[in-house]
Design a protein that fits this description.
By secondary structure, the chain is of the alpha/beta class. The protein has 9 helices and 7 strands, in the order αααββαβαβαβαββαα. Helix content is 46%, strand content 15%. Strands 1-7-6-2-5-3-4 form a 7-stranded mixed sheet, with helices on both faces. Helix 1 packs antiparallel against helix 3 and helix 2 runs antiparallel to helix 3. It starts with a helix and ends with a helix.
């Protein structure tokens, strides 16, 4: 339990003691939004690195050279753990917003940092509001902010399986004209969820696939992007599980 307690203390301490930083970021944003985005990214990355260190998590990152650094991208990944966000966010090369469930809006301070980081809040029960969120994501990538989405729609609680990828998730890449980066995460649930509420020292493998440019895909593949990208992630998942675990 000691790792869990340390992580909780770290998160709460960061949220409380970062209030002056939130005020400073608000002031910076009044004059320079790009500087605010980059400074918020650096601050939260520092906090997430401390969480990873306290959790005792070793990350093996593969394929980071596949991530374009000259444009925004749409990261698409499988989702088994709350740690998926922490472990992947520290590796993004540019400001990146995550698509989160709207229930996250109820947590003060945390939601302020999420908004600073360009996160979007999805109402999974309201199609109209969900469409607005996707359109907001399109505007983000057009402005140079990458977006990360877990198209299974929720954390998958069954090991070594994948929920169907929602096709609407890929509209951000299609309408925003940015590449898709398949992001395969292996063993993240072993850090926390598999022995909840304990946090266990473990290894996680994250592999970034080659960018998928929609203009290079045939018509039939474009119609079933969810299945296509899910297939890439599934193949990569079982390859890395066999190699590392």
């Amino acid at each position: 339990m000691i790792r869990f307690i340390l992580v909780v203390i770290m998160v709460i301490s960061f949220l409380v003691f970062s209030i002056p930083l939130l005020i400073a970021e608000w002031i910076i944003g009044r004059f320079n939004q790009d500087l605010k985005s980059r400074s918020s990214l650096a601050i939260v990355n520092w906090a997430f690195r401390q969480v990873i260190r306290l959790a005792g998590t070793k990350v093996i990152a593969l394929g980071e050279e596949n991530i374009p650094t000259d444009s925004a991208v749409l990261y698409v990944g499988n989702h088994r753990s709350y740690f998926d966000i922490v472990l992947t966010y520290v590796r993004v090369p540019r400001p990146t917003g995550y698509v989160a469930k709207k229930e996250m809006l109820r947590y003060p301070l945390l939601v302020n940092w999420m908004k600073n980081l360009h996160c979007l809040f999805l109402d999974r029960d309201n199609i109209k509001e969900g469409l607005k969120t996707i359109l907001s994501g399109v505007e983000k990538v057009k402005s140079g902010i990458s977006i990360c989405i877990f198209p299974e729609g929720t954390r998958n609680k069954v090991a070594d399986t994948f929920l169907p990828f929602h096709e609407g998730s890929f509209k951000i890449a299609e309408k925003g004209n940015v590449p898709i980066i398949p992001m395969t995460i292996v063993n993240s649930a072993a850090v926390f969820e598999d022995q909840f509420p304990r946090i266990k020292k473990n290894t996680v493998v994250i592999e970034y696939g080659k960018p998928i440019y929609l203009k290079d895909l045939d018509k039939e593949t474009k119609k079933s992007l969810g299945t296509y990208v899910s297939g890439i992630i599934s193949d990569t998942y079982f390859k890395n599980k066999k190699e590392y675990f």
